[in-house]
Amino acid sequence: MGAKKTTPKKKKTSNKKRSxxxxxxxxxxxxxxxxxxxxxxxxxxxxxxxxxFTPLMIIRAFEQKADGKEMSCSHDWVSIENISPNLQKAVxxxxxxxxxxxxxxxxxxxxxxxxxxxxxxxxxxxxTISQQTxxxxxxxxxxxxxxxxxxxxxxxxxxxxxxxxxxxxxxxNSIEMGDGVYGAEAASKHWYxxxxxxxxxxxxxxxxxILPNPRxxxxxxxxxxxxxxxxxxxxxxxxxxxxx
Length: 244
Known about the structure:
By secondary structure, this protein is an all-alpha fold. 58% of the residues lie in helices and 3% in strands. Strands 1-3-2 form a three-stranded mixed sheet, covered by helices on one side.
């Protein structure tokens, strides 16, 4: 009698491996698909709806609790019409001079920042107002490549879907402007005891100039360094037109 032929078990193992690989691929593909759908929904939603809170607000609250401080978050959303043009011009002068011209990215500034950081120098970062808005509203703080990649993705989306005026409105209502202070209205009341729509050129410059480190610097009763920068930004505000 001839010997019975047996089916190699390797084929089953190969099929299992192929099946497992397909499941992983399907999972990754579905995750990317749903991430794109959900992120697009939020970007579309925030084109019309005020942003109630940001990840940074939550992080700062937990940091305050960890330090034994009272958890505080001052945040009052107001429309762009109720934010002084002085402040809008001031943040452009301080943070992103080409805001009204670029499509979300200032590659020259990014390249300069990269080269300087590589040499160990400390200079202002190359992020635009659009990039900062994307980071503040949708992401966490940090310097990882993953976060920077997501920041670029959300920056592209908001530049595509929102107007420049809307980006500015969300930016000025969401950015950290003091310890536990977020947005133009809360910052105006905190630093100058007035509404954001009533900010003078000098006051607007005071808020704008502290944005790189709003928990370290003061918009009022400032140091000589901050006062010097206020004067420069105030001059810029005086001869600049704001056209979205």
